[in-house]
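User: What would this chain look like folded?
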Amino acid sequence: MRSRFLVFIIAIFFFNLLSQAQKEDKDPVLFTVAGKPVHVSEFIYIYEKTNGDKADYSKSSLEEYLDLYIKFKLKVQRAREMKLDTIPGLIKELAGYRKQLANSYLTDREVTKKLVKEAYEHKQQDVDISYIMVKFGVKATPENDTLAAYQKITKAKQKLEKGESFASMARAYSDDKSVVLNDGHIGYVTALFPNGYYQLEKAAYTLPLGKVQGPIRTKDAYFLLLIHKRRPARGEIEVAHILARNDKSGDEVKARLRMDSIYQRLEAGESFEDLAKAYSDDKVTGPKGGYIGFFGINRYEKSFENAAFSIPEDGKYTRPIQTSIGWHIIERISKKDDSFDYQKARLQDKIKKFYRFEQAKKRMIEGIKKEGNFMEFNTTLKKFTDSLDQNFLTYKWKAPKGKSRDILFVFGNKMKVTLNDFTNYLQQASRKRQRMGQHTSPIAAALELYQDFVSENAVKFEERQLEVKYPEFKSLMREYEEGILLFEATKRKVWDKASQDTLGLEAFYDKMKENYRWKERAVVSQYSLKEGSKHLIAKVRDFASKNPRDKVLEHFNAGEKQKILFAKEKTIEKGRNEVLDKMTWDMGSLSPTETSQRDKSYNFLKIEKVLPPAQKTLKEGRGYVVADYQDYLEKEWVKKLRNDYKVEVDDKVFENLIREK
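Assistant: Here's the prediction, encoded as structure tokens.
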């Protein structure tokens, strides 16, 4: 028996070794720092993120980045040994970032991304539909006028199923005012449908053709929907047009003859834009060369729309086509890019403002609850809500004293939420409780707030699972945590030391002072005359060439209420000023006069003195010295870290990353 048990233990041991080996084969260790592994997946993630399009996996590129990442990991290792990851301020900063990132990550991944993809797929088609609409109030609930609306729409459907025509039922039952004109046949429409009509849109794009669907509930109405056809979406087109308007008598012949004449001139090679400016009867677009701009379906008359979208390519134009107001020639300028990458940002912004976004978030919450084994203890909640009176809806209400450990709900065995957690939440929601008091009872308000509380905790629960469920989120958090540690460690070991270590800075300067020298410098007087003083320029220049600055100012500003001349002294190093660099550096030399585009003043320089190259003092070169001292300290720090921590690179794993062309 003992021998069997021993064989069993040995088998488990070797099975675990095999599993670990298989895992490492899929994601091998590229290098270690002080025994801590960095896997290929981590290196590739940060390499591609940092280098973007330049991540070509060439040997030189990989070697350069591997060296940088090893230095990074060495500094992070030192930061952990310095216990910087235990500093409360840094822990709080990381927690704040995680909360912000997790919330947006979860919403973007589980809600926005799916809605954007669905909306884009919908926008690839136009849908030809008819519908019957029966309205109810925006604030309706199943207990009031939605029932009457539902009964009405159901009656219409029953009659349709018995063979009544859709047009006759639309006229009899639909609350859409346009039904008198179209018998409920709307024609082709495209996504996105108006806010609040997501369920109708979804039905239009997914349900079968030719069969009445519904009732479909939207924010303020029930619909019966009949889908006739679907076609590839027309999208949006940018056009210009030339219009020959029918005369007041309605005579179309004159307009047609004029348009035929214009068309012949176009065919002969004349410019569309010039002809539109000269002959178009559209007083709005004509002066702009006929430019209308972008439009999609259902913006203009069908004949105009059909003709415009039939133009095969940019720069082409139609033959004369007729609408109710006259005759047109339409030129296609461009067609809007309908690729996913182009549409994504626009759709994302729109969707986040739409009701469908809130609906999708609710579905996400329900999915989290189901996956997380959510369980409620309703007796705890009922006991609490039954105890509430009208004070609950006022500022007077306070959370019950003492901590109730009665459980409200759980997510499996991973998260327990108590009544005390809920009452604390209610205490903080004081304003919301008071607003609700205007239209609901204490129990109804508490139950509504309870649903908000459940949703909030469901998101918190899911956020805790992100590192386990999504490797990319784990990578983001690791990247940010190590970035915080690197910043703090570098601040202490390099930046602060470079600016505060006076003796070390002076010693570095003494050793490297030849690197900090002035080139040749000019001491100049910079003269500026106010706008409107152009007649004085020649006199000022002549006087300034023979006299010092103070005397020039005294001479030209004497007796004036407003100074017309300004001057100041500056010392400028060679190569630092374009005007000076074009001059001969002789004492007394004047630069050409230039007019300022900003204030219309007149400006010139006079070289008063030329200073030879010289040594900068530490004070004069401090900015450069400190920057170089920081570089020196960092190199010395990395050198010490390499001595303190063993770095091992798996050359074979590294070579497998190389993709030489």
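DSSP finds 25 helices and 20 strands in the chain. If you want, I can go into more detail on any region.
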